[in-house]
């Protein structure tokens, strides 16, 4: 842990207490040819309490008993954890405590994969906020919106608390909805061989050929690569059947239907990556789709944050006669930090110095497009490295 940074007292928006923790890895070879299963065994150290506070323009900090910052930018340090690196995740938790309350007198067993997915959702929510700020990055908006909506809900059962990730209404439906509307007595189908679907993307009815409808429902070939996949079948059933869904859900359904029938059908949706059944036709990604995607991204961000700060409550301190917030754990504090960020005003940027040892991700105004380094030391180090590289090239 770094030494004390500053004696400046912070104007705190909220505070949170915790404890450092100890962690061991149990690696089990489950079956031949299968990757080993990693389970973390954690317990908290009551002799090493931690105190966090959030201050505007500074972010979430580890603070001393007098209120001075010991370490700044805890959310940025979480973002800097290399994706999927469980050892670096362990280092973070042993320094700043676990995300949720854990026992002090016995181990809590946690699947490493579940823990990484929970951290990925925090990262994805913040990346999504960054992507819609300033100049829109539609590729990143699509990836992180899809990841948060398509990834199944994850549960983490601990001795003192059971945590579940945000379960968007669309998430549950895309995994299970398989109810197709009965068109046998539909007069429009009888007259024209088409079925009209009210569509928020077009602002009018969209006509579906009955041959295409029947092919998707039965799993037959449609000529559209990937249309036999379970998730696309569920999406199509939702698009044609859930015409009375609420506006937000209908916008999500309509967007993904148009995107996947006109650009490309999703094969796998992973953290930071989407793969398709065939090469996507990106030129078909229209302005109407982009506008709908922006609306969906805002819906997803709000639902993710609201879900994870639902347990936070206001309280009034009798000693100071001042309002504050009751934040119970580090997970709530991290999401509450995102809650207090100003959309379109503040973003987290990644320091361009590949050897950054300070704030790999740092909070900056969205308008500061020319600020590429977390500090003058990293800027100088990068300039020195560029100079050395030029010298090597000229030899």
Into which percent range does the helicity of residues fall?
A: 25-40%
Shape: globular
Order of helical and strand elements: EEEEHHEHHEEHHEEHHHEEHEEHEEH
- Give average pLDDT, whole number: 88
Structural overview:
The chain has 395 residues and is an alpha+beta fold. The strands form six sheets. Strands 1, 2, 3, 4 and 5 form a five-stranded antiparallel sheet that branches. Strand 10 (266-270) and strand 11 (273-276) form a beta hairpin. The chain has twelve helices and 15 strands.
Summed up:
This protein has 395 residues and is an alpha+beta fold. The chain has twelve helices and 15 strands. The chain is 39% helix and 24% strand.
Topology:
Layout: E1 14-28, E2 37-55, E3 59-63, E4 69-71, H1 74-79, H2 86-96, E5 108-111, H3 112-132, H4 138-150, E6 155-157, E7 162-164, H5 169-176, H6 187-192, E8 194-199, E9 204-209, H7 210-218, H8 230-241, H9 247-262, E10 266-270, E11 273-276, H10 287-308, E12 313-317, E13 322-326, H11 330-340, E14 346-350, E15 361-365, H12 376-393
What are its keywords?
five-stranded antiparallel sheet, alpha+beta, two-stranded antiparallel sheet, 12 helices, 395 residues, disordered N terminus
């Amino acid at each position: 842990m770094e030494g004390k940074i500053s004696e400046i007292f912070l104007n705190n928006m909220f505070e949170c207490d915790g404890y450092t923790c100890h962690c061991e890895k149990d690696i089990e070879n489950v079956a031949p040819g299968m990757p080993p299963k990693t389970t973390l065994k954690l317990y908290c150290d009551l002799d090493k309490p931690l105190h966090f506070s959030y201050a505007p323009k500074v972010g979430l900090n580890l603070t001393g008993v007098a209120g001075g910052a010991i370490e700044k930018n805890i959310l940025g340090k979480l973002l800097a954890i290399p994706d999927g690196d469980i050892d670096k995740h362990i280092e973070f938790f042993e320094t700043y405590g676990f995300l949720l309350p854990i026992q002090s007198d016995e181990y809590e067993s946690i699947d490493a994969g579940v823990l990484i997915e929970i951290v990925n959702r925090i990262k994805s929510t913040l990346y999504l906020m960054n992507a819609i700020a300033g100049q829109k990055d539609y590729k990143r908006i699509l990836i992180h919106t899809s990841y948060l909506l398509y990834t199944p809900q994850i549960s983490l059962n601990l001795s003192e608390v059971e945590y579940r990730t945000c379960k968007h209404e669309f998430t549950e439906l895309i995994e299970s909805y398989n109810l197709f509307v009965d068109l046998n007595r539909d007069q429009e189908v009888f007259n024209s061989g088409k079925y009209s679907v009210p569509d928020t993307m077009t602002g009018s009815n969209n006509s579906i050929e009955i041959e295409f409808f029947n092919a998707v429902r039965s799993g037959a070939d449609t000529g559209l690569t990937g249309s036999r996949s379970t998730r696309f079948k569920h999406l199509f059933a939702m698009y044609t059947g859930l015409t009375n869904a609420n506006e937000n859900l209908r916008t999500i359904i309509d967007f993904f239907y148009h995107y996947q029938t006109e650009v490309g059908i999703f094969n796998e949706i992973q953290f930071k990556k989407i793969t398709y059944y065939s090469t996507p036709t990106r030129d078909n990604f229209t302005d109407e789709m982009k506008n709908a995607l922006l609306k969906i991204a805002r819906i997803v961000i709000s639902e993710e944050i609201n879900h994870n700060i639902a347990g936070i409550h206001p309280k009034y301190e009798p000693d100071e006669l001042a309002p504050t917030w009751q934040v119970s754990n580090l997970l709530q504090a991290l999401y509450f930090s995102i809650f207090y960020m100003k959309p379109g005003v503040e973003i987290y940027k990644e320091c361009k110095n590949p050897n950054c040892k300070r704030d790999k991700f740092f909070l900056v105004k969205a308008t500061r497009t020319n600020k590429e380094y977390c500090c003058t030391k990293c800027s100088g180090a990068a300039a020195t490295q560029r100079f050395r590289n030029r010298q090597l090239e000229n030899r």
